[in-house]
Structures
1.
Amino acid sequence: MARLNADLTINQTASVSKSTIEPMKNYQVGDIKSLIDSAKTALVVVPQISVDGIAAALGLAIALKKKNIETRVFCPQKTDNNYSKLSGLELLTESLSSGDLMVSLSYPLDQIENVSYNDDGGKLNLIVKTKSGSPKIESNQIEIKNESSLADVAFILGEETALGVNSGIVNNGNWVYISPANNPKTWAKASLVDPDAPFSEIFSFLLPMLGLELDVDSGKNLLIGMRVATQSFSVNVSPESFEAGAICLRATQPAEEAPVSPSQPTPIENIEKSGNLTPGTNKPNPTPTI
């Protein structure tokens, strides 16, 4: 009986320990979540190309699109065959142009009656009607801009200086800065810095924290990104790296899928069979030579 009671005590202790395990990452995501919750469009910027960066950006973009947020990913460098196994490559763009035009008036709002427009033979007229007795709007009070924010919320994975002539894009809009480098940005509405993880690992934990779905495609992308950044989990790894890998691996497995027998390829091998991804770190990948 004493042995039975001891076994019960051990089992109960083990059960409590498992139920009280805390997440391995505890990012502060309130500000980021608020920006996403109010957004209809999103932009993800990868200033310096790498499999890890592109995989993380596409994983985020896929998750945002499933939340009905129109999303695109900008990277100034072109991808090559090293990226061919990633999902969502059609979301990549090399253009940052915005079709929006913004007309700003340095004029008191309480003195404006209404704003309207009309079509004058194919010419658009904007009409600002001031209240009776209000002063006339002078030409020097009118400012026209064709560089409005590129999206309701924008993410940048790394340093904006790597964008060169496009680095000024961070001066407009609601930007989320995500980086392994603790380099505070005054233009960022929210920041997430994790010096111990590649981008794909960061997003493996971040997406669920933001209430975004980690599905087969986004999970596969993040898993590929981590494998490349860590040389198949052999360098620059931590316990969190393996936990992130497990999270992504579970996301790629349909619930109804039968268990894989020992004689069959393992699930992680099924996800990435080609072997054409160049192992490396969170740095730009070298261009393959023929």
Note: The chain has seven helices and ten strands.
2.
Amino acid sequence: MISSMSIPARMATPAVGADFNADRLALAIENCGIICQILQSEGLRPLHHSQVGGVFETEAEIVALLDELGPGVLGFGPDTGHLRWAGIEPASLVARYADRIGGIHLKDCFPYYLGGAEAAQGLSYQQLEGTKRLWAEPGLGVVDFEALLAAMPADYDGDYMIEIDEPSIDSRLESHRMAFDWAKRSLPAISQA
């Protein structure tokens, strides 16, 4: 998966497209295309992985990247939590690019800091993660996984990866157990595979 991270203004004011620069976006798309060609020459299928804090943070930026490079160059490997944090409904973007999905991070997030810079209360990316009220174990947050899974292609045979960057509880083991139990309930076809 190909991603971009750590634009200082976006890490300081995450999920709102801070410090947008059209020239930087165009250059990043061009460079991503070059990287994709190199990966393809080695037999790999590159996928775009959405991340708050990087060049491709907003829906307009992600769409520009995917549309400009096209399905023959770049697939899609969305992160549902990062999409939702940036104000994007994961199910609708997944439906739009369903034919390009090669892997997906199933990540949930709480509603507390969603809704732009004001909702984030001036906290940076790292500070928000430290609150333990940004990322949620699957099913505890606001990502509509039912709609998301319905948007996935019926013949999808890629990976579903549950990801919790910073658990909302103190025990990482218990966080993993909660995620596993959610997967058994919510992904029955996968848990029987």
Note: The beta strands are 47-48, 75-76, 103-106, 108-109, 135-136, 159-162.
3.
Amino acid sequence: MLTVDAEGKIARANAAARRMLGFTSDSPEGDPVEQYVPLLARLHETSEDVKLTQTTVEASGKRRDGEPFFAQAWVSSYQAASGPCLAVILLDVTEQVRDREESGLKQLLSNSRIVAGAVSHELRNLAAAAAVLHHNVRKTASFGENTDFQALGTVIDTALKIASTELSDASEESLEGLDVGDLIQELRTIISPSLEEAGIKSHWEIHQGLPTVRADRSGLLQVFLNLAKNSTSALQDRYDGQISIAVYEISGTVVIRISDNGPGISSAERLFQPFQPGATSTGLGLFVSRAMIRTFGGELHHRQQPGDCSFIVELPIMARR
């Protein structure tokens, strides 16, 4: 439990709150609450205009040593002589969030709309190529009047129409400005314990002040988790395994690079094809991940050289207002 005074500073923090924020002997009292839980600072500003009564929120925070965590917060505002203040109950739910998100990829793959959309994309490419070939062959006199050949043309046209029909995307309505830097910090919180347990070192480079992108938060997080999981699997037998994750802006695009120093991928040319031989689970992880990124107007690439295997996500930034 803690309180926030009229200046946005932590006025009181009980022993449990001090431990949660990473204090052992001294206290965060007197420090700006934004330093630890930025959302509480924004709620404090809101409380000047709206009285908050038992408001419940989920918030990401940062302990004294910089370690990120997730919390549920019950917030109420009250008026003191110095101005509006907050009373807050914080519950650390980091482990619950990790468990929830780590199971998310399986849920993503079971989402028939996403898989169907990805297959539709591949079918559209094949049908378009078949349509061009059919058109060229039709110019041959011996085929032009053949009823079987005409029927084949009807089948190709039908397949092309079906594949070109855009599937209803329920997530389209929820696509909004997303701070990828914040999302990568969330990814860091989720995967860091498992990396440490596996003896894998991680390096994070997250540029500040990144522009927002238009993407679904949950879907994009699942893509990052899948890519990070692939890198972790590639490093299982290495004593010097290392994963590097960098986020930066370049040429109107936010770029996320997830790299590892594993052995690389032997059949890179078939990497994004579905149902890969020898793949774990359904063999759809990268196939669906790329399809998801493309629904956001972005692209997923693979690059590798000796000692470095990288997956690169490119997302177009939203127009600045």
Note: The domain at 174-316 is CATH 3.30.565.10 (Heat Shock Protein 90).
4.
Amino acid sequence: MYTKNFSELIYSSDIQEDFIFKLKIHHNIFSKSIKSGTIYLDKYIFTDQPVEGAKICNISEGDIIAMLEKDRLEVKKKEGIKVKRKVILIAENDKNNIKLFDSISDCIAFLNTIAPSNKTTLYRYIKSGKSYHGFIGQ
């Protein structure tokens, strides 16, 4: 996965399922981009061949997943599609421990299994970038 101008390599894998299951990219979209060069989320492009001269980005898998989720939300908002507030929690001590929630309520239900939690406090911690019950929210 490269930036659309092929200047940076964001993510690579020899296994197509990594893109589909780890990065949550629909298989049809992924396949179409490989075959035709379609740009994904107006920012990324997939290829099955390495691109010479592309800078390799050292971004964790968790950060890539979070970045793609934010980009998907931006595209939906631009297109006027109503979206619930999705929440991504990344464990403070393990950047590969990522929890994705379809709503604030689902996230609060999970956090309540760790310690008492509420929406207002969660919003505040997400906005500040501080850890809440061991997780950084986005």
Note: The radius of gyration is 17 Å.
